[in-house]
Write the structure tokens for this entry.
Amino acid sequence: MSQFDRRTVLKAGGTLVAAALTSCSDAKKASAGPAADTLAAAAPNWNSFARSLTGRLYLPASPGYASSHLLFNPRWDTVQPGAVVKAANATDVQKAINFARANKIVLVPKSGGHSYVGASTISKGMQLDVGAIRGLSYANGVVTIGAGAHLYDVHAFLDKYGRSLPTGTCPTVGIAGLALGGGMGIHTRAFGLTCDRILSMGVITADGTARNVSAAVDPDLFWALRGSGGGNLGVVTSFRISTIPGTKLGFFRLTWPESQAAAVVRGWQRFAQSAPITSWGNLHIDAVSNGTLSIHVLGISTTGNATAAAAQLESFVGSRASVRSITVKTHMEAVTYLGGGTTSPRTGFLAGSDVLKGPMNAATITALLGAVKAAARAKTPASAILDPLGGQATKQPAGGASWPWRSALGVVQWYCGTPAHPTTAQLKVAQTFITNGHRAVRAYSAGGYVNYVETGRSVSTYYGASLPRLQTVKKKYDPANFFHTSYTLG
Ligand SMILES: Cc1cc2nc3c(=O)[nH]c(=O)nc-3n(C[C@H](O)[C@H](O)[C@H](O)COP(=O)(O)OP(=O)(O)OC[C@H]3O[C@@H](n4cnc5c(N)ncnc54)[C@H](O)[C@@H]3O)c2cc1C
């Protein structure tokens, strides 16, 4: 069975890694003079490649290399790509793919760099960073976004037109990684996932062809890219996405004592099933270092008034919250409140997920709470965060999307903070929490959310019923499995 396993990935790239290593040392010699171009017929010509780019190429000896390849999670800082390409435009992306393919170099794309498993960096291979391709334009309700744009930039731009997008909340997450894996957030129930609203994408496939895929052109690739996660079918350079109104939102934040925890989970489940689609709320069950649990729901109403949504949740829980806050926020106040500001600092963490196929029974709720409680007793900074689906997320968008969890109740994320550079023992503690979480909800788990991908789980965990068709699309557009380093569809 194919696994999302970094070691497998590196092993799979073994011969390619050797080629990249050779290439890098030859590049240093090449800088000494033109004759170096002929040093080895099979060696990549890094100098000529660098000259062909509008953007920049960093090799390990280049000034600035050390900071050129970093991801959001400092845990991956020690992964050293053999080359980092900072693409300035789609033509650079095309050149990089053609160069890597011709020279048998493993290539991984990077946008915002938030991959949970460090999939946007690669030891000794080529990291293709589209971060500089971040232009934005708007007309007639449709935004065109360069694939390197971050979520905060997208929202700040759209705010000028009174528009918004359903996205996640972290300001520095890249639109590309988010949208290709689905994209869940406060608007999921009212407007669907980010991927559902994509109208077309500029994509460079493994053969170097630039395509503009949509429901009408390469519809199978369009379907596949909407939910399969980044890095496995091509490098997206731009998105055209249908926007939503950037209205005021009503917010509620309700806290209950730990003694009500099971009732809150039950109430949240009813809320996820039967609240109007204008209401959304995610449940946070946080381990506190004194061994207790902190329980709250953060929610919104797209009507602008959250009072009724909060009251409905309290009626489902069966008790009034011990701490209540109800506010109204403008579009950008909401964006910065949810994102904790306009940017977010690099953070160490280990996380995973389960997609809940339906409301959990009492025993499973007890087991879920027990998993977080065990972490609290061990002073592990862990959380279970339950995001609701339902509403528009149940509907297939026009043109279809491979995102497979339309009938699910919601997604539970198992999140554990770690030091920036965790020891093996610290990672083991975090992994134990995640494994315990999976075990607790096993009877209700339909799989995992690909944007919260973990190592060591089967591919079918993330794609469910979409897997066979995804594999067919993969064979058609990437028969040699060029994009194979993080998602093993091939
Ligand atoms: C702090 C934090 C908060 C988050 N909040 C949310 C949330 O609210 N909702 C939600 O749904 N998700 C959320 N996520 C998960 C996030 O959506 C995924 O981690 C996503 O893959 C990150 O995208 P990126 O572009 O930032 O990451 P990257 O690491 O750059 O890319 C992720 C994957 O996509 C590939 N890729 C990157 N660019 C391209 C491209 N142009 N074309 C093709 N493939 C590409 C990479 O190779 C990698 O496999 C959060 C993650 C973090 C760390």
Summary: Confidence is low (pLDDT under 50) at residues 1-41.
